[in-house]
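INFO worker-7 received task bundle
INFO bundle size: 2
INFO processing item 0
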Amino acid sequence: MKRTGKPRERLLDPARPHAGRLSRLYAREVVRFRWAVVGLWLVVAVLSVTVLPGLGGKASGGLNGFIPENAPAVQTEVRSYYIFGFPLYSRTLLVQHDPQGLSGWTLAREALFAAGLTRREYTDVGPVLGALPMSNSLPGMPAASARGTTIVTSLFMPPWISFESQLVAARQIGNRFLSAPYDSYAGVTGTIPARAEQARIIFESLRTVELATLAAIVLITAINFRSLSAPLLTLAVNGVAFVITHNASPFIGRIFDVAVPDELAPLLVALQIGVVTDYVIFFMSGLRRRLEAGDGRLPAARSATAEFAHIVLVAGVTVAAGTGALLVARSDLFRAFGPGMVMAILIALVVSITLVPALMAIGGKWLFWPGPPGPNSAEEMPGPGPGRLLGRAFGRDAVRWLTDRRHAALVAAACLLGLGVLALPLSRMTLGLSFIPALPADNPVRQAAAVAQAGFAPGITSPTEVLVEAKGIGNRRPALARLQRSLEREPGVAGVVGPVGTGALGELGVFIARDGSAARYLVILDGEPLGGSGVATLSGLRDDLPRLVQEAGLGDVKTGLAGDTAIANTIVTGTRGDLLRIAVAALAVNLLLLTLFLRSLVAPLYLLASSVLALAATLGLTTYVFQDLLGHDGLTFYVPFASAVLLVSLGSDYNIFGVGHVWSEARNRPLTEALVVALPQTTRAITAAGITLAVSFGLLVLVPLAPFREIAFAMFVGILLDAVVVRSFLVPALLVLVGRRSGWPGGQLHAGPGEHESPAADTPAHPVGATAAG
């Protein structure tokens, strides 16, 4: 009897972790050297501030890796410049607009001013190489209203000049030379000014996002643990992780020749703060349970560390490996996402599994001040916090109800049906790369674009160039004219300016090369040029161009498309091509780690399938909100894929925490009874962690740019669906339905009786004890 007493007591105490030998050894040592651990991290943080910036340098200044230099659109643009000696369009534009019509004097003055800029008559205008004005009075140029109301002047600058410098130079020129009332100057626009404005807005919003996220984390932690001191631990751990990441990222990027773009900074901040806080909540929930069970400060810290350290370690590695799947992409942008996220998660992981246990051992019950936990047996009724409502709904009585297979089937069917309905709009999702519409409505660059589009057509801010090459093609004017008319009739094209009908511009070598070897056309689309509709129009034009050339009678010629829409088309096409590679890599990594952790093949399959279904529902709902309700012309191309990798990886994180506890209990009791014991314990922690992570990402909405609002919505909704619907309802129901086969082929699950029956049917007061005693 003496030999069976302790095991039975251990089984009857669901708060007592079933920790392995290595976990107990680690917990003992990290608690033993707690002061040394804290001191070490303080030294590392100080060194990262004082040493690493000098070694690493500054991070990348922008998302310059959208497209490789050997892409066809880029090569066509370079080829056109080589043949003609100057580009046909610019990404920095000056806009003049008068709805009543510009005067002939204004039109002539702008032409002379542009010619003077090109001839370098102005020596103090900054890095401007030339200018080309276009009025909506030109033949073939679309006019949204009356003709002669708008002038768009392309400013040509060296490509090595930064976006910000180009925007500053353009504004100085506009304010200096177009300041008279009759000039009707509206401002500067274009994709380069838009990207410069995006970088400025992100930089200015970053501190707000950081402070708001930390404030939300403090509030959630304080409510969840009913403590004023628990948030201090959370802030301390987050502060150490953030300082090290912020200063180490340029240094690590320099070592591995990977530059983390500055535009990703808010996303990395949200990811790291959310992950660190999640792990703090997991550790602290274990500490609270042990203190409530009557353990002392150090034993409670050792027990909580032994219980959670290996789970947090596996969970963190899973998230890091899952986000690292972005490295298999061919897109330079996705390859820049991966290292930054992996680095942020790994630093968060190492800090969490060392510093949090050390601080728990030092603080003990004072971490829950002003209400230090004491002995408390009311585990089924968790106290106030984000998980209280769900904790009550998923107390032991509710879990016993769920362990009836009929009830489990009903819950699983409801979850699957609901998630499936939410996923339906996913079939309508389109992708784009809109820079200007992503800006706030009151931004000067967007307002100038609206004025230009009011005078021409939406595509005027990013026109498309069609280049046609063949020996002597410049002398074949009738065929070139037929091609121009055919291009004008293409779906989605508002107007075409080319070799025919442009007067002096045609004779000056703007549209026909002086050696007659090439001709080019400027195509203006009737929709947002970098949105989903513009990308689709460009795809159609690319497919039709060989036929149009033949029908025009030009014969065997070489054609190419250039411009931002062509680049956006290449990016979106490449992104879709990367989807399969990223998806396979992310799913394979998460499946492998889940299989190794659970020592099972069956459970990881339906756990991962549940995450994928929740992801589909998230993206479907995001598509519905932004495309159908808000009228966005497609989602920003990287939002669905970054969200997908993060949500699947974070879903596996919660799988490891929640199902890992069930597996631990199921080694000693039937699976349904393990659910009754483990699920109420983990529900509040997972829900609190999920809400924390969702809020962390949701606060990206404070960055007033469309891509960040899209990813904030997707991550907020996706994490809540995963943490609440999938982990608390769907997964337990599937565990009940699949039963002990979930552990196949491993032998981790207990083979006791009553596996498919509700344990509540036997002994309502102490079902676990009755089964264990049997």
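INFO item 0 finished
INFO processing item 1
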Amino acid sequence: MSNAPKDVSAPVARDTGATDETRNVGNGEFLLAVFGADLADARPLVVSFEGDPGSGPKKRWCGLPWQSESGIFPSLPSTANNYFSLATFRPDDTGRYRRRKAHFHALYAVMLDDVGTKVVMERLTLGPSWLLETSPDNHQAGYLLSEPLSNGAAADRLMNAIIDAGLCDPGANGPRSRLARLPCAVNGKHTPPFVCRMVKWVPAVRYSVDELVDGLQLDMTPAGRPCKRSAGERPSEGEPVWIPGSKDNAVLVALRGSGLYKSPLGDGRHDITCPWVREHTGEVDGGTAYFEPDDHWPIGGFNCFHGHCADRHIRDLLRCLEIEVNAARMQPTIRVIAGEMPRIVDAAERALAQSRRHYQRGGLIVTVITDPDTQEARVHALSQPALVHALAGVATWERFDGRSKAWTCIDPPARHATTLFELPDYPHLPVLSGLTRQPCMRPNGTVMKAAGYDAATRLFGVFDAREYAIPEHPTRAQAKAALALLESLLTEFCFTRPADQAAALAALLTAAVRPSLAHAPMFHVRAPVASAGKSYLCALITAFATPQPSTPTTFPGDDEECGKLLLAELLGAKAVIDFDNLTSDLIAHRSLCTALTSAHMSGRILGLSRTATVSTRALFLSSGTNVGPVKDMTRRCITVHLDPGCEVPADRCFERPELVCEVLRERGRFVSAALTLVRAWIEAGRPMSNCRPLVGYEDWSELCRQPLLWLGLPDPTGSVFEAMADDPDRDTLDRLLQAWESVFGNTPAMVREAAERGSACQNATADLHEVLHDIARERGAINRRKLGQWIKRHEGQIVDGRRIVRDGANRSAQAWRVESVANRSSGKCFSNHRQR
């Protein structure tokens, strides 16, 4: 950054008819309005550089002093990241200007950051002096001080109070050295760089410190650090670590006691009579509300629409009702006392649990958040710094001050938060098994209809219950009507046979009830050509699991990659994991098989030296052209076959081209139909149809397979048994058993003997020769080690009433023989099913 004779970034003001609130403002004009022209030797510092602010050398943040005299000003290209200090600084002994505490002169303005994303717009209870958009829908809001604040300790308290209120991040160099963005600049974090835009500019709007504290509802803590306690300056023996918060809202109690309370308005809002109603014009009583404390309003809110109360806020109401700020928070108090680490950490966990916003999942402390970009709800694991922030929000923390002989407010100590973070278990935090994006089935067959945490299922509901209508006692007729509605969504898909349509219906039911099931099979959509509707059918199924559009991913190439991907997705409680457009068969990765047949899976968390165990309650989908499940995946995956029966499927026209969008718009209606169908089967007494059991998926079969069989549809699991019968490994084993038995009979033989007999292609051993070469051929010969490993891997597997087993006789090497066994499989479904 170099000096230049003028501000090259300041545009010439044009007469566009725009008001001061919306017109463009140059950097020079802006700084002159903030700091004035008479600064003597004190100067604000400006910083300018191009590129990503998150990378590059630290020295570029040093900055140069701004000088208003004679237009002398550092060059600030409008294509650079341009910043200015909110305070002015004096030069050091060498005449150099630095943003350091020792050289602080006065604070001229304060700033709120991330307004519109992390901080909701409604939190701006005071109109800002400027509002600058620094990235899409993300703003910095600035407040000019009516008098510069020259007391450094007071400036720190003000800035720290803004940070503690969650209105700004802490920054890197301390509160007095804070930088804000200039209006003519870009945000280099984005590609291409985002051009900053002044949304509001009203330099005449200025506030005193008291007005900012009241208007922004800030908590100002005493300056300085507590003095070191001497003997006798300690809290009394038996001092409690945990002081419970009030169960009753003190403000509501006082409002009712004084006759000012009227009625609840919902969502924590209450209609009240204004305490200053006599000052209203005509003493009009109406348009006044009290808001209960929440994340954005830590001590609650007060709003009166009458002009006489325009400047009154929640602190005015509290003073009027004679209620302390801590009582209005309705939070417990945790006191930090030396030697009480276990009790303090236990109290911290209790405070998190009582907030009803924090849970434990897989050994981690988590909360439920909504992604600001995709609007998708997900489970978020708290890091150690985030845990400190969370603890500050759920309790008031105090330490005994020996100087004042009183308890003073502090931030949660980092070492206590670290201890809580590293605990192996949490006795107070409720367990979060996952999220449900619609009402879900409880183990007793009832429906969880309310959003929020449900203790019976350990699920957190993120849905609007008003969108769903599920009859209390649905009938068979209602089940048929629901089935007809679901079938109407599938009329334009070209299923190979009726069983494939039944499989697609089972997928819709599975998507709707997946949070209720410990595990469920995967669904794979297969077609002989591209553009047959495979991905579209997966998107339709996804709409029954989540209101968010489908976000497919690439199928992992190996088990290590698969394990990392699944753990990351399941830790966030993703509703659907969709592997789209497979280019090879659905390989049986060990971690994928575990996720499909186990209620939980474990793995090491990236970036942390700890292991997490997470629930596998996600719907697994995949699609591909002429590829499908093989080996161990055949019994874990239901295949839906599509065949458009034309040369160019992409040329087809559809009557409902926006089908998925239609389902997402009326998602409550269609998901309610799926749940109604399942509930009707339960109300009918859970009638069971005879079918082949799908081992490991008994609960899924009851809720997603039996209701369809009850209404006369084909068995949706037919493809599973066909795939197992057509498994290439099974065919190879069958050939080996027949060839081995024809050559050796019941006589045990070693792998070496089999390889020798199979090496010669004679009539008697031709079949053995062929199958052994298919299994273990290497450089024109049979690899004995590879053959032995293949046989061990298939030991005891029964095919057509035969299996290969080890011979128990003492030998120098292991011998194998083929034995016949009785087929003990049952044609009955759920032979161990309990009587109801």
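INFO item 1 finished
INFO post-check item 1: The longest strand covers residues 104-115.
INFO post-check item 1: Residues 612 and 786 are 36 Å apart (CA to CA).
INFO worker-7 idle
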